[in-house]
Design brief:
It contains ten helices and two strands, in the order H-H-H-H-H-H-H-H-H-E-H-E. The protein is an all-alpha fold. Strands 1-2 form a two-stranded antiparallel ribbon. Helix 2 packs parallel to helix 6 and helix 4 packs antiparallel against helix 6.
């Protein structure tokens, strides 16, 4: 019965998300020629099912275990001090710390070969939409969830309090991957937009900018912000060949050769050539590594 409930929930979630995002992608398409049933649709559908039936429950169990580990005497003083603060200050501290930690971890995923092997699965998508957002290796997903929630867990926030923030971040992650061109105006400094994250998935530049998926202000702070102004005509995905089927991709961190595409710890900084239609974090400068 529980399995049937999970399957039914996944089916209802798919219908609800399609009802929301497919009209958006049709009305404000970033790539108007991309069909709804585009190439690799079945692969990403498999990721969607796995996320809802296996990966998400596994992530919840993982966070509950981490939460239990945070109940130690060494953190009692910190958690008591946080609890005495106004709720809005607690929330602000948690969000800022989470944003900075996620930015740093995401950047490491593009620098450290071991992390890149798992993160490359996500970057293998050659067509972006809300369904492609689910293409994520479970190891990459678990580590990302840890980075997202660790500061709040250390501060003593219960998982119930984090649930709404986790749900909001999840929905926004679908939005920034969706085939939508919908600039956010001033809100674009605080919340990521599809145009920024699509640029992060660009085949030739995906290791050098826009690491703050949901917090562009971190890219401004660390000099890795880029906002394209022209139409999205650049290719997406990886330069190196990558498995196209679901199970082969899950096994790819082990089966791919050691010299496969991906910046390792010793990767040299690369200054991207100037191109029209690109706005840098600081006028007259190029984004830099840190």
């Amino acid at each position: 019965m529980m399995a049937l409930g999970l399957i039914g929930g996944a089916a209802l979630s798919f219908v609800a998300l399609a009802f929301v995002f497919w009209p958006l992608e049709k009305t404000w398409a970033a790539r108007p020629g991309q069909p709804l049933l585009r190439p690799a649709f079945r692969t990403d559908l498999a990721y969607f099912v796995a996320q809802y039936l296996v990966f998400a429950p596994l992530a919840l169990y993982f966070l509950q275990s981490v939460k239990a580990l945070c109940h130690v005497d060494a953190l009692t003083g910190l958690q008591a001090a946080v609890a005495r603060q106004p709720w809005w200050l607690q929330a602000l501290e948690a969000v800022v710390l989470c944003d900075v930690l996620v930015y740093g971890f995401h950047r490491l995923c593009h620098r450290v070969d071991f992390l890149w092997r798992f993160h490359a699965v996500h970057h293998s998508a050659e067509h972006l939409d809300w369904l492609a957002a689910h293409r994520e290796h479970p190891v990459d997903g678990l580590l990302t969830q840890l980075a997202v929630n660790l500061p709040a867990l250390l501060m003593g926030f219960p998982l119930e309090t984090l649930a709404m923030l986790i749900a909001f971040r999840g929905m926004w992650a679908l939005f920034i991957h969706s085939n939508v061109r919908l600039p956010l105006g001033p809100l674009g400094f605080l919340l990521g937009s599809p145009e920024l994250h699509h640029w992060h998935h660009a085949r030739e530049r995906h290791t050098r900018h826009n690491f703050g998926n949901l917090a562009p202000w971190t890219d401004w702070l660390f000099g890795t912000y880029h906002r394209p102004t022209g139409p999205e005509q650049y290719p997406l995905g990886l330069v190196e060949p990558f498995p196209r089927r679901f199970l082969a991709q899950l096994c790819s961190p082990v089966t791919r050769p050691a010299d496969s595409e991906g910046p390792g710890p010793s990767a040299a900084p690369v200054t991207p050539p100037s191109r029209p239609g690109v706005e840098s974090a600081r006028p007259g400068t190029s984004p830099r590594w840190h």
